[in-house]
Model the fold of this input.
Amino acid sequence: MSGYVVSVRELCKEYSGGFTALDRINVDLPYGQIIGLLGPNGGGKTTFIKILAGLLTPTSGSVEIGGYAPGVESKKIVSYLPERTYFNSWMTVKECIGFFEDFYEDFDSRAAKEMLNTLGINIDAKLKTLSKGTKEKVQLVLVMSRKAQLYLLDEPIAGVDPAAREFILKTIISNYNSNATVLISTHLISDIEQILDSFVFINQGKIFARGSVDSVREEKGMSLDEFFREVFRCLPNC
Amino acid sequence: MAWQFKPTVPIYIQVVSVIKSRIFNGEYPPGSHLPSVRELAQEASVNPNTVQKAFGELEQSGLICTFRTAGRNVTEDEELIKRCKEDICRKYVNSFVNEMSTMGLSREDILSVLDDIIKSQTEKEGGL
Done:
């Protein structure tokens, strides 16, 4: 096992029609960190996460997750929260829990039920009767109740109210074990920067910056959010 | 309630100051057991590694001691706590006095305002 949960070399992804979503990405992500995958809309964040989750195949380049190429083995150690829900709306919360139990050996249904209980979510409710924010909470609880090595969270805080946002951040902090890595994609930098160790900033398919949050504060004397706002002001086409 | 952080200062340094002030004001008394990394990370809504780093900094200054299996305690050395407290006070008052003398205030001006403010705050909160 290498020291990195994710190793990516010269990764390219071109969609049909010739749009280059990722352009020769090289990055290593260590174990035991909470890492922000930041950048503007359309910068390549979701494409990158989907490749790590094994949902998209790269056009070229190599990807290793815990030493495996994306596939059956890598999916056992990766817990992925998609941008959109993939549960059917007629399912109850309890049925979703059953779904995860069937699919993932490392799923802790007791932990999931406990968290849902704390949140006051009725597990007999059908998904279609829940609000958007509650549905997102349910999904996050399920994803974080796995004992994975890599959590991929695609926009976990978009579209929920500030109180729910805080709950989501606390859930992430308290449920990841210290050897696992959490990769969170978002463009809402100021909301999550205090829980990040480091960040990867993707723009126009390229890694634009990578570093630790505290080093930005120390060296630039500004928050990550301010730093990127400033960088962006100088960029054309943004 | 999550802690509020200033954007320009590294977060771990701000966590250090919060823990320090809790030691100074007696919320964490000398020799007492400190909350775990995870508990503090939860309370502050920050990354556990950040709290870890803050604890490392405090260990170096001697304000807290780590036991391999039993977590962390505040130091029992009350002299050290007192010294650190004074250091901070000196630091703030120093920069304050510098600022005031740049603006041309005399020793008497400063002292009388200082006295006023402390009096009115003591009346308001019963503090100090």
About this structure: The mean pLDDT of chain A is 89. Chain A is about 35% helix and 25% strand. The CA atoms of residues 143 and 191 of chain A lie 20 Å apart. The longest helix of chain A spans residues 162-175.
